[in-house]
Amino acid sequence: MDDVERFRTAQRLVSAGDAHSAFQVLDPLLGEDAPTSVLLLAGRAAFATAQLARAEDLFRQVVDRDPADHYAHAALGRTLSRRSRHHEAVRHLRLATALDPEPWYARALAHSEAALGMTG
Questions:
Q1: How far apart are CA 84 and CA 72, in angstroms?
Q2: Mean pLDDT, range 81-94, rounded to an integer
Q3: Is the separation of the CB atoms in 38 and 29 below 8 Å?
Q4: Do residues 84 and 103 touch, judged by C-beta distance below 8 A?
Q5: By the 8 A CB rule, do 96 and 74 touch?
């Protein structure tokens, strides 16, 4: 299976709710030079399988490469929130919301702010 086929297979698996298998398919592609799209998909799979430290690492790699990637900030923020690190989550979720007014970004931000006792 070539890299493109691996990626497409992993996309189908994540969409079908089999994130564990998707992560296994993507694992060989996760080297230092992994494309951003692979990192994001692997991060989604890691998040879905509660591998939160791994998800955090993958989403941070994307944010480090492209600080304007709103989805990566939102996914990192949601991951941090799930790890009860709401102070850190708020920073990334605010950036994501500022970069793109995606409704789920705003909901995730509101959740983390509420966990900290902040008001909108």
A1: 18
A2: 97
A3: yes
A4: no
A5: yes
Q: How far apart are CA 24 and CA 70, in angstroms?
A: 26
DSSP character at residue 25: H
pTM exceeds cut of 0.85: yes
Q: At which residue do the structure tokens 């983390």 appear?
A: 112
Q: Is 117 helix (H, G, I), strand (E, B) or coil?
A: coil
61, two tokens: 């790699």
Helix (H) or strand (E) holding 57: helix 52-65
Tallying the residues shown for the chain, one arrives at 120
Both tokens of residue 80? 């941090």
| Averaged confidence pLDDT in the chain | 95
Angle in degrees, 0-180, between the axes of helices 103-115 and 86-99, rounded to the nearest 10: 150
φ/ψ of 50, rounded to 5, equals 60, 25
